[in-house]
């Protein structure tokens, strides 16, 4: 049995990464793109930033995506997939950056009849 998990991170489009370098003090990077980069560097098996057409985060108003203008509260979802121990280490290492993010850890099952992409 696989110990595969999907971690889903939910946060508003306005969320920014911590200012860790000089250039970040001028303009902190978007949290979504920052987390994608650090997930790649950490060797996370799979990372997908989902397009959100419409939705809301806890305590927020309903938001709809519009190509010309979008709300800073518009929800984003970043999904990371890897083994539980790898994801636990990643979440622990990046806990300070995830303090304003709703984190869900979902156990996964992969059917044995289906071949996986390797």
Number of helices: 3
Count of domain modules: 1
What integer is the average pLDDT? 84
Please give the alpha-carbon distance between the first and last residues: 18 Å
Helix/sheet category: alpha+beta
Strand content: 25-35%
CATH architecture: 2-Layer Sandwich
- Please tally the β strands and state the result: 6
CATH topology: Alpha-Beta Plaits
Please report the first level of CATH classification, the CATH class: Alpha Beta
Series of H and E elements: EHHEEEEHE
Q: Helicity, in percent?
A: 10-25%
Sheet with the most strands: spatial strand order = 2-5-1-6
The description of the largest β-sheet is: 4 strands, antiparallel
Poorly predicted regions are none
Q: What's the overall geometry?
A: globular
Radius of gyration: 16 Å
